[in-house]
Amino acid sequence: MSEQPTRQRRERATGPIGSGARREMMRNALIESRLTPNAISLTGLAGNVLAAVLVFERYFFLAGIAFIAGSVMDTLDGRYSRMSGKGSPFGAFLDSTLDRMEEGIVLTAVGAYFAARGNETAVAATVAAVLFSLMVSYTRARAEALGVECKVGIASRAIRVVILSIGLLFARGAGLGDFQLLAPSVYVLAVLTLITTFQRIWHVRSVMLAEDAAAVAD
C-alpha cells in the first residue's frame, strides 16, 4: 500500500519536462510558494519597461526578447490566479490595467524612434496602433458591461504581441540586409487593430439587435 505514493512521487520528480506528472509537481510548488498573481503582473510590467528602454538605446533584438518575456508574464498572471486561488478583484483590475500600459509604453518608445528618424508616416501608424489597441480592449470591456461577450476579431492580445515582437527582433534586418520589419509591423498592427475595433462594434450591434428582436417576439 505504501509503495504507490512513493512511486507517484518518484515519477513526478523524474518524469520528462512537460509530462503530466512534472507539470502537476511544478503547479503544486507554485501554489505553495509565496508568489502572487500581482507579483507576476508587476514583473511583466518591468519586462516591458525594460523593452522600451532598450528601444530608446537602439538595442532592438534585446528589446524584442524583453518584450516577449514581459508578455509571457502577462499571460501567466491570470492563469496562475485561477489555478492557485490567490486572485482578487483588485488583482484582476491591476492585470487588465497593466496590460494596456505595457503595450502603450513599448509602442511609445517605437514612435519616438521613428520620430528621431523623421519617419512621419511610421509615427502616425504607431499612434494609430496605440489608439486602436486600446479600443480593442475598451470595446470588449464596454460590451461585457452590457452583458455581451466580445472576444471576436483578428487582432487579439496574443496576435498583437507576435506582430510587435517580430518587428522588434528584425528591426535591424538581422542579416537580411535592408529588409527591416519594425515599420511594417507597426503598419500591420495599426490596420488590424482598426479592423478588430469595427469587428467588435458590429458584433455587439448584431447581438443586441438579435436580443431586441427576441424580446419583441416574446
Automatic annotation (TrEMBL):
Give one Pfam hit by family name: CDP-OH_P_transf
**So where does this one cross the membrane?**
59-76, 122-138, 158-175, 181-198
Signal in keyword set: no
Cited InterPro entries: CDP-OH_P_trans, CDP-OH_PTrfase_TM_dom
Enumerate the UniProt keywords alphabetically: Membrane, Transmembrane, Transmembrane helix
Domain of life where this protein originates: Bacteria
| The protein's name in its UniProt record | CDP-alcohol phosphatidyltransferase family protein
Species per Swiss-Prot/TrEMBL record = Paraconexibacter antarcticus
Query: Which taxonomic lineage does the organism of this UniProt entry have?
Result: Bacteria, Bacillati, Actinomycetota, Thermoleophilia, Solirubrobacterales
